[in-house]
Amino acid sequence: MVTLVRMAAARGAVSAFGVRLAAMACRVGARPRSVSLILPVMRDLLLDVRYAARQLWHTPGFTLTAVLTLALGIGATTTLFAVVNGAIFRLTDGFSVERVTRPGLMDGLGTHYALAAPVARLREIERAHSPAIVGVAGVSRQSLAVRRPGRVETLSAELVSGDYATVFEIRPAAGRWLTAEDDRDAAPVPVAVISHRIWREWFGARPEAVGSATIRIGRQDFTVIGVAEPAFNGLSGFFVRTDVWLPLASRVRPGDAGQQAPSRVEVFVRWQRAVPPVDVAHALLEPMVSDATTAHLEQLRQSTVRWGLPLDERRTRIRFELVQAGEALYITWAVQRGLAFLAIAALVLVAASANFANLLNARGTQRTGELAVRMSLGAGRGRILRLLTAESLLIAGAASGLGLLIAAAATRAFQAMFPALAILGGREMAIGDLALDGRVIAFSLGAGLLATAGVGTVAAWRASRAPLQSVVSAGGAAPGQTPGRGRWLRTTLVAVQVTVAVVLALASATFIEDVLYRLEQQGLRGRVVHYDTSRVVAGQVALPRDLGADYNEPRGRQFFDRILPALARLPDVEAAGLADAIPGALGPAAPASDFLELADTPEGLAGFRQRAVTSYVRVSPGFLRVLDLPVLAGRDLRATDAYGAPLVAVITESAAEAAWPGQDPIGRQIQRRRGPPITIVGVTADPVTSADDSPWRRPSNVVYLPLAQSFTGRAYLVVRSSAPERQPDAMRAAVVAMDDRLALDEPATVASGALSRDTALRALMAVVTGLGAIALAIAMVGVYGVIAFFVSRRTREIGIRAALGATPRQILRMVIDEALHIVLVGLLCGVFVAAMVLRAVLAARAGIHPGGATSWIVVPVLLLACGILAGYLPARRAARIDPNVALREL
Asked: By C-alpha distance, which of 388, 374, 383, 385 is closest to 468?
């Protein structure tokens, strides 16, 4: 009766509010008919929202649980979307690849080969006008030493033809892009386009800098005529950030830029139609295709002779093909994988929605009596539906806002863990901006609405169908309180959550196994470096490699001979050396793998079993002291091991054991691809070891060759220092003091560049593992909630069972059996879904190794244990129910 009086009073208050609102409308004056129709609707919506807010405020337990559960799901999904958006979906911001193709070759085995045309061929294609094409662009990627006030930096650059901006529809942020007039031999002024970052950091983003500022490359000044848009990072792939664009005809010589002049370029063609005419394309590109086919077959023949393997005739069946630019630049590949990871992330949102549906179902059961009384007082089903939907929308808004905050914190943590996704060899590799832009915010709000709209509407519709006659006949008790009603729905929803948790946990375990598999294949599993990488600082310097007037081979040797003592004299430097690679480093500084071939084997080059995978590193005398690696036998490399002297080498202990097990390697000889045999003069300690104990592919198999015996024009300057943080600037100054046109390429400690080549995969593994943990937490909360609801609705039954002699252990087992039933259903469904979908999708589409049986045993056992724990807590409470208290409620 008291409830009825309160409801009547509330209805009277609503009517009084309506009378006052109508009086205000009359005082304002007559309104159009549309306004008179909208005002009542707006009034009712406002009242529904206010009432829904009060109801949620008075039930803080339900509100907090629902908001936090949804916020976790929305935050996790939004975090991965922000990562994928910044790293993948924004790859094409600032340019277009539609109707753009790159010519290529395909052999009979389906292997694709990209074409690189000589610049002369590109000019012929440009002159061959065709109405079917919009433009032809040639691109050559290089690293150039660019001078700025007080410093020389190595920047990633693209040398492009005049139609580059036309082909890719690139618009400048300031100034203009390069044109055909700039890309000709008779261009009056050397010009360049710079990135938005360089414009901001070097020139303060001043508009007057465009057209007047210059950048210096070697001995030549280039006038800055344009600035790229902030989102445009060039065509150099996912991680390399392009900062300078120069015309192909700008005559950047090796003596000027410290690099070779472009001799071959990638060719991109933009067509008038989405489907290019193959006959026109073949006729246009036929000279380039013919040259590339001949070169490919010659390379294939040499490779066959080199390894002594039979030639597969299918590899010689070369045909011409046009590859879409999105595929050629790996954009399509990246988008497919981004969508695959978003689909995995959406499973967390599904789990959160299922948990939210369970909460609404339980809340609807508890409010059945209240809603029936409202309907008995005249509230229509539409009004009840609107009221409950308003509650769901309020929860969605709060969960989306909180999820956005969670995503912001998670993306900051992700950037802290992977500052630029990879720092390889000291060079920053950008993955894009992870800022929560409008696209990410819209995704978060949409995810919140999607998670609650359907679930909330269905739950509201079910609750609005309250059986009024049953409630009245039951004396106001809700029939939903009977144990069997709605049990199948609650069980199904929790089973869905457990299924999602199983799939995501298996996905995480698959990623972990894949990383371990890749590390094992690369000899990096259990990898231990035997010198202090935090004290060794290295940076690469590149010299001209031609015989021009600036740095010919004798002058290049003189530079390296002079820079080494200068490095040794730097403060806090304990030892200095030169090397073309650094043993124990990863990324570009890591030595390339080759084979250790014995000169004295009777089988010669055909003796594959006599070869061990090894690394050849060219070093200066005393380099082993920089790494603090002792010489175990023989001698170290000396200054007398110079150009023209007999070829010698120092070999590591593991390489010696692989080549000559149980024998003395001193005086033995190895054979490289060309040249005379190389004599082993010393054995040194291994710089690195791994869990791979196979002597044929250990990463510790290293052969040190004298750098002076083979001039390459580039080398790493390496120092060991007691104060490594001071060395990068000091090393740059030492190089500039020798030649202010040269740049030391981002010197850094070997430890800072020791991120794995699988850094991107590690980052995604961390994200997917986090998603799996969140899904597991949501699933366990769902199991706990359903079992707690089960216990609360069966309190009388449990009391009667206890009064009739049931022991606490029997009651505990009954409740835990209920939890196990739910968890086992979800486990079976999850394993089935993972087995049918997850393994196939990851292996076939994402290139992920599917892993072994360990994950498929450990994950279900772990989830089963968590399910038992989640059910044990309410079961223990059920076992403690006092039968006297329960029987009094009968």
From this structure: 374
CA distance 502 to 832: 10
Pairwise CA distance, residues 414 & 430, whole Å? 14
- CA dist 759 and 423 (Å) reads 9
Give 172's Cβ-side CA count (13 Å radius).
19
Q: Which of 112, 426, 90 is nearest to 232 (CA)?
A: 90
Name the phi and psi angles at 236, rounded to 5.
-85, 15
Q: Report d(CA 27, CA 23) in Å as an integer.
A: 6
The residues facing 193 across adjacent strands are 226, 245
Does residue 606 contact residue 735 with C-beta atoms inside 8 Å?
Answer: no
pTM higher than 0.70, yes or no?
no
Confidence of residue 1 (pLDDT cuts 50, 70, 90): very low
Cα first-last separation, the chain: 22
Residues 6+ apart with CB under 8 A from 15: none
Helix (H, G, I), strand (E, B) or coil at 191: strand
Check if the beta carbon of residue 81 is closer than 8 Å to that of residue 440: yes
Over residues 688-705, the pLDDT tens digits come to 887 666 666 677 889 999
- Segment among 46-50, 416-420, 727-731 with least mean pLDDT: 416-420
For residue 488, which of 367, 358, 369 has the smallest C-alpha distance?
Answer: 358
Per-residue b or e along 214-240, where b marks 16 or more CB atoms closer than 10 Å to that residue's CB: bbbbbeeebebbbbbbeebbbbbbbbb
The 3-class SS string of 62-95 reads: HHHHHHHHHHHHHHHHHHHHHHHHHHHHCCCCCC
Residue 608, pLDDT > 60, answer no
User: What CA–CA distance (Å, rounded) separates 373 from 561?
Assistant: 95
* Sign of the C-alpha dihedral computed for residues 672, 675, 676 and 681 taken in this order: negative
- Residues 106-124: what's their mean pLDDT? 78
Place of tokens 């010489």: 631
**What local confidence, expressed as pLDDT, does residue 764 receive?**
63
Mean pLDDT over 820-848 rounds to 71
Q: For the segment 302-361, what is each residue's pLDDT rounded down to a tens digit?
A: 766 655 666 777 777 777 778 888 888 878 777 777 787 787 778 788 878 877 777 777
Residue with tokens 């004290």: 535
Q: How far is CA 816 from CA 231, 719, 827, 868, 873, in A?
A: 55, 64, 16, 7, 9
Evaluate if residue 603 carries a pLDDT over 60.
no
Task: Express each pLDDT in 257-268 by its tens digit.
Answer: 344 455 678 889
